[in-house]
Design goal:
This protein has 209 residues and is of the alpha/beta class. The chain folds into two domains: 136 residues, Response regulator (Rossmann fold, 3-Layer(aba) Sandwich), CATH 3.40.50.2300; 61 residues, Winged helix-like DNA-binding domain superfamily/Winged helix DNA-binding domain (Arc Repressor Mutant, subunit A). It is 52% helix and 13% strand. The chain has ten helices and five strands. Strands 2-1-3-4-5 form a five-stranded parallel sheet, sandwiched between helices. Helix 1 links the parallel strand 1 and strand 2. The longest helix has 15 residues. The radius of gyration is 17 Å and the shape is globular. The termini are far apart.
């Protein structure tokens, strides 16, 4: 029996994953979490094999949670389940230690296959992610401006590039406007993309949004 925790701040997503797992005799949900801290509360008291983790959660986001999980509980496999396209975050989550990356638009069978493969200690890399990883290795190393950014800075840049204001971003990330402004300053310093429109054009040209 594979013991699974689903971490997502949307009740309907957790319900959907619960129904998917309920239909599989070898998969058992042992906990649900609305944020990163709740994940740690569960794994501290419950044996867990695989965590299905959303990347966009209030407070400590999915990437931060993933890194801390791999540091404290390296034996637990983590599958990232995200609304974001694979070319936005797949490389970063695989580098951070995730066993796979599945979008919320994927078929239920893909999530089930990813969980089983992760439990075997393998990486779930579908052809689309394999292509993204290959492109990163060939073209997207440190020379790409966005690869100079930390995970938080990258997340803020994508939100700015999508047309969101600093106040809206701060609310979504459960951070202060001042903190988001600091991230924006760092983004400008590291990329020389000085205006929001430049960030938008950069992100569009590279298929990041």
């Amino acid at each position: 029996m594979i013991r699974i925790v689903i971490a997502d701040d949307h009740t309907i997503v957790r319900h959907g994953v619960r129904e998917i797992l309920h239909a599989e005799p070898d998969l058992k949900m042992v906990g649900e979490a609305q944020n990163g801290q709740a994940v740690f509360d569960i794994v501290a008291h419950e044996p867990v094999d695989v965590i299905v983790l959303d990347i966009s959660m209030p407070g400590r986001n999915g990437l931060d949670t993933l890194k801390e999980l791999k540091r404290l509980y390296p034996q637990i496999a983590v599958i990232v389940l995200s609304m974001h396209p694979k070319d936005q975050y797949a490389v970063r989550v695989i580098k951070a230690g995730a066993a796979g990356y599945v979008t919320k638009e994927s078929a239920p069978e893909e999530l089930v296959a990813a969980i089983r493969k992760a439990h075997r200690g393998e990486k779930y890399i579908d052809p689309e992610i394999a292509e993204v990883l290959a492109n990163y290795i060939e073209h997207g190393g440190p020379g790409e401006l966005h690869n100079r950014l930390s995970d938080r800075e990258y997340e803020v840049m994508l939100k700015i590039a999508s047309g969101k204001g600093l106040t809206e971003i701060a609310a979504e990330m459960n951070l202060s406007v001042k903190t988001i402004s600091t991230y924006r300053t760092r983004i400008v310093e590291k990329t020389n993309l000085t205006t929001n429109s430049e960030m938008t054009r950069y992100a569009l040209d590279r298929g990041l949004i």
